[in-house]
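Record 1 of the preview.
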Amino acid sequence: MLLDALYAQTPLLELVRKIGWDAVISLKQNSRDFVSIGGTPVLRLGRRIPVSTEVRDHKTYQIQLWDTEGLPFTIDHPQPVRVVRSEEVLDRKRQRQGELRFLFHRSRMALGHYPAKQAFPTSLLRQLGHSRWKNENNGWMDLTKHWAFKHVSSTLAGTAPN
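->
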């Protein structure tokens, strides 16, 4: 099951554990309980996996992964999770105005695997995280492009449109 951190609440996590499923949770900076553990930023924890290179669609990605087990998920739900952090640098060449330019883009992703266990290789958890992004992006793009759905800010919720 792929989850956004927003939905990873204790009742749902207990159900996941009871059923025996695994959940891959997209962790975000606004998950305040999870940003640091014991004063140590989560982004500095973990076993570093050697850098790998991936070529996809004429793009080259340099991928650095970290894998940490046994971290408490939140104060309310302290059961251990496994955290996989990914930093990726996209290196691609673009032809702009007759000139070849090299472009770099850096992205970061942190995923929680609940319950904490080595059921999946670190690289597979990274791929699952990307799948979640793809589903979310394509889903929202389809809803906004073809069905006129709009994202409403929480400050505007409940107010009538002009």
